[in-house]
Design goal:
The chain is of the alpha/beta class and 362 residues long. The chain has ten helices and 17 strands. It has helices at residues 12-24, 61-67, 102-109, 128-135, 146-152, 154-162, 193-204, 213-219, 282-292, 304-313, and strands spanning 38-43, 46-52, 84-90, 113-118, 139-141, 166-174, 178-180, 208-212, 234-238, 257-261, 266-268, 271-275, 297-300, 318-324, 333-334, 341-349, 352-359. The protein has a ten-stranded mixed sheet, sandwiched between helices. Strands 2-1-3-4-5 form a five-stranded mixed sheet, with helices on both faces. Strand 11 (266-268) and strand 12 form a beta hairpin.
Length: 362
């Protein structure tokens, strides 16, 4: 989470960077696999343009901020941007992707000063945009609210630096530490309706959502964020022996679904079968597959077995646990126990306590 002590404690550069972060968040859920980026153009102490990356393949934040000024640009430098500073939460790109390089546009406008929150870890950028700006004689300031800017795009940074998705574990448990009753008991409803809506909000911010075979069989989940706005994540299912029946909601074709299994590779419509080797590390193969599929974050909502596999492998970044403070069952399936955890947030929704933990090692 991004926590600020207050705008009054910040320098002018930090205040404008804070605004960049606010703008960048507007792209949440719509720009992946690109990062969220915000930009603010300031001239003589006044904001003259703002922009953010609104959707994947669309204009970048710098383009929006410069375009918002309404000032035409000419080849070469122009005096229209004298005494101006462009603030951007992430290093401007220096390569041709879905759009032309933002660093070229900045140079073309003649903006004399650029303040950057953090460098872009993507290998096609990673310092190259900064080098290009400096080579053009532009004053470049780096590292303003760097921690907060990196936190904003922690999924993007994890994906490019660790070559795997950002992993979020999620489960609900009773006050006495059980996530399910004994076999044969009616399905235990732990979290309340407000917490359920919160979970759908969480889902909307991630690229993929993962469950195992048993969860799919027992709960028949849709794995969409129908109780919240924005696109639903890609549905990911671990079904090594292909035990799941096509009548399950996961196979309704309404959302892209990837089934990781040991028997076949196949693709049809919104359904992909991705083959893994039973004789090799499941988690390692899964992380490599998700990296190749360009899925930058995964919300793990499986049962205890799959959750503990991630915990024991130390392949997790964040855990979100819902604890119903009123339900105690005395026996059943115990909830997982985190290792190397650090609590970073607590929220209360009626009888539910929502705790967020980070992996202290990662």
């Amino acid at each position: 989470m991004l926590i600020f002590t207050g705008l009054t404690d910040m320098t002018a550069d930090e205040k404008y960077m804070f605004r960049c972060i606010e703008l960048a968040r507007k792209g949440a859920g719509h720009v992946a696999p690109n990062p969220m980026v915000g930009a603010v153009l300031v001239q003589d102490g006044r904001i003259i343009g703002e922009g953010w990356h609104a959707r994947y393949g669309g204009a970048h934040a710098e383009v929006g901020a410069i375009g918002a000024t309404g000032q035409a640009t000419r080849s070469g430098q122009t005096s229209s941007y004298a005494n101006s500073t462009l603030y951007v939460s992430l290093e401007p790109c220096a390569h041709f992707g879905k759009t032309p390089p933002c660093s070229d546009l900045i140079i073309k406008t003649g903006i004399p000063r650029v303040v950057i929150g953090c460098r872009d870890p993507f290998e096609a950028v990673n310092g190259k945009g900064i080098e290009k700006l400096k080579a053009a004689g532009i004053e470049v300031v780096e590292g303003v609210l760097e921690k907060e800017c990196r936190e904003l795009n922690k999924r993007f940074f994890t994906f490019h630096q660790k070559k795997r998705p950002y992993i979020i574990l999620k489960w609900a448990q009773t006050a006495d530490g059980f996530m399910a009753g004994v076999p044969g008991d009616p399905r235990l409803l732990i979290s309340n309706e407000y917490s359920n809506k919160k979970v759908h909000q969480w889902r909307s911010g991630e690229a993929g959502i993962l469950v195992g075979t048993n969860t799919a069989l027992q709960d028949d989940p849709e794995l969409t964020n129908r109780l919240w706005t924005g696109p639903s994540p890609v549905r990911l299912v671990l079904d090594m022996d292909l035990r799941l029946h096509s009548s399950l909601k996961l196979f309704n074709g309404q959302q892209k679904t990837i089934v990781f299994n040991s028997l076949k590779s196949e693709e049809k419509h919104n359904l992909i079968y991705y083959r893994l080797d039973k004789n090799k590390s499941l988690i390692s193969q899964l992380m490599e597959a998700l990296y190749q599929l360009k899925i930058q974050s995964v919300f793990v909502e499986g049962g205890r077995q799959i959750l503990e596999t991630f915990i024991q492998s130390d392949i997790w970044d964040e855990a979100r646990v819902i604890i119903n403070k009123e339900i105690q069952i005395g026996t059943g399936l115990l909830a997982p126990v985190l290792v190397n955890e650090t609590q970073v947030n607590r929220e209360v929704l009626l009888n539910d306590e929502l705790l967020t933990w980070l992996n202290a090692v990662n």
